[in-house]
């Protein structure tokens, strides 16, 4: 008897459950539908993956539909090559805080370089981009710039501006006209498995640029480009970069800081487990040689391999391109508490460690711990101006504090 009851109760409950679902569904089918995530396929909305038809309207309408509902929504871009003119994805009238843009294909930019941004997300909250290739079509513009003719400035490929809770997974950015990915005024941005690829001599094609943002994480990414792999601008705090390959490119750079006289500082930056191959710099802090209110502090560079890098470890506080607007002045940027730990490999120049700090605000709290860099199979050299700190473990070249 007991065993019989045991069996019958769950199946009765199942029947009740099914009846409830059916009745609820009949009374209010929309409510049942709306409770599950909706997918908008851009092709169903008129996009054409032929590489030349303008699919902008279909993407704009997919965004409007996704924003119209408070329930999670996916915008799906199937395989194909979709040409898009400049698109602004605005979150200002967006009810949705869980929009995923899942891209199987390639998005293709206009090559004229006339817009400052190509794909711009602003004031959005809770957006994920998953997969996909963004083709910035920058090669013609780079050629124009190198010919010295008057050329348009070119577009940033992808920018998130004043946005929160952003995920970028498995995205590839090719041949951007200017910066590939910009994070500006954002909180809680996670990028994983991002690939950036552009020619080593393409101008101003920074891989990922972060500024005025907090809680940005960049993981498991590979960046080869003509400018900084990652550039870290004023007002960046709590930035975490881990397992990143860089090259070709200008390295991972905090700066340029101090371009403006009033500037927010950079604080709590970690760069962990990175490889630099044939790059101009490895880990760099760079500021203009003129007065400013900014700073860079609490920075950790850890577990880093340098392969034939021109300036593996560098702080340069005398940046003054074309000697304009700064001669005879000293940088106001205060650099402090920067740790270099477990950094090994080869330098392409004799001086592998360069601390060229501000005479007005010398660098303080620089720590070298287990650093070994060679040039032509011999210990490289270090040079210090206005830098104070400590060395521990094996440090080669011998520190110059
Ligand atoms: C530094 O940033 C990391 C994230 O990169 C964060 O987890 C940590 O709490 C921050 N530390 C401080 C003291 O704010």
How does this structure look, described?
By secondary structure, this protein is mostly beta strands. It has helices at about 1-25, 30-35, 55-70, 140-145; strands at about 40, 50-55, 75, 80-85, 85-90, 100-105, 105-110, 115-120, 125-130, 135, 155-160, 165-170, 170-175, 180-185, 185-190, 195, 210, 215-225, 230, 235-245, 250-255, 265-275, 280-290, 295-310, 310-320, 335-345, 350-355, 365-375, 380, 380-385, 385-395. It has two domains: about 35-195, Single-stranded right-handed beta-helix, Pectin lyase-like (Pectate Lyase C-like, 3 Solenoid); about 230-400, Single-stranded right-handed beta-helix, Pectin lyase-like (Pectate Lyase C-like, 3 Solenoid). It has a 20-stranded mixed β-sheet that branches. β28 (about 365-375) and β29 form a beta hairpin. The longest helix has 26 residues, at about 1-25. 2-acetamido-2-deoxy-beta-D-glucopyranose binds near residues 239, 240 and 268. 2-acetamido-2-deoxy-beta-D-glucopyranose binds near residues 238 and 239. This is Polygalacturonase.
């Amino acid at each position: 008897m007991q065993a019989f009851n045991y069996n019958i109760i769950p199946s009765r409950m199942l029947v009740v459950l099914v009846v409830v679902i059916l009745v609820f569904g009949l009374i209010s089918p929309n409510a049942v539908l709306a409770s599950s995530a909706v997918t908008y396929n851009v092709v169903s909305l008129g996009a054409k993956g032929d590489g030349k038809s303008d699919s902008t309207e279909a993407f704009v309408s997919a965004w409007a539909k996704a924003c119209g509902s408070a329930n999670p929504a996916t915008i799906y871009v199937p395989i194909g090559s979709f040409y898009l003119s400049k698109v602004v994805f605005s979150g200002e009238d967006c009810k949705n805080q869980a929009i995923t843009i899942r891209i199987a294909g390639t998005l293709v930019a206009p090559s004229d370089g006339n817009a400052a941004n190509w794909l711009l997300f602003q004031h959005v909250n809770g957006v994920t981009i998953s997969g996909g290739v963004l083709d910035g079509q920058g090669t013609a513009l780079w050629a124009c710039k190198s010919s010295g003719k008057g050329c348009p400035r070119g577009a940033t490929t992808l920018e998130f501006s004043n946005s929160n809770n952003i995920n970028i997974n498995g995205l590839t950015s090719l041949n951007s006209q200017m910066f590939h990915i910009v994070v500006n005024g954002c909180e809680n941005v996670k990028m994983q498995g991002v690939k950036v690829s552009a020619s080593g001599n393409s101008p101003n094609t920074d891989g990922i640029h972060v500024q005025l943002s907090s809680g940005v994480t960049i993981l498991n990414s590979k960046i080869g480009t003509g400018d900084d792999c990652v550039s870290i601008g004023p007002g960046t705090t709590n930035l975490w970069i881990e397992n990143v390959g860089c090259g070709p490119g200008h390295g991972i750079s905090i700066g340029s800081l101090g371009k403006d006289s009033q500037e927010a500082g950079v604080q709590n930056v970690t760069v962990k487990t990175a490889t630099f191959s044939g790059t101009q710099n490895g880990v760099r802090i760079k500021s203009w040689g003129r007065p400013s209110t900014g700073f860079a502090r609490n920075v950790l560079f850890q577990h880093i391999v340098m392969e034939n890098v021109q300036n593996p470890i560098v702080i340069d506080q005398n940046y003054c391109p074309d000697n304009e607007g700064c001669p005879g002045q000293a940088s106001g940027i205060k650099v402090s508490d920067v740790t270099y730990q477990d950094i090994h490999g080869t330098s392409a120049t004799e001086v592998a460690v360069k601390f060229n700090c501000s005479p007005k605000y010398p660098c303080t709290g620089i720590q070298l711990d287990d650093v070994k860099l060679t040039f032509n199979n011999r210990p490289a050299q270090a040079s210090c101006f206005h830098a104070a700190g400590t060395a521990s473990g094996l440090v080669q070249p011998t520190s110059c504090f």
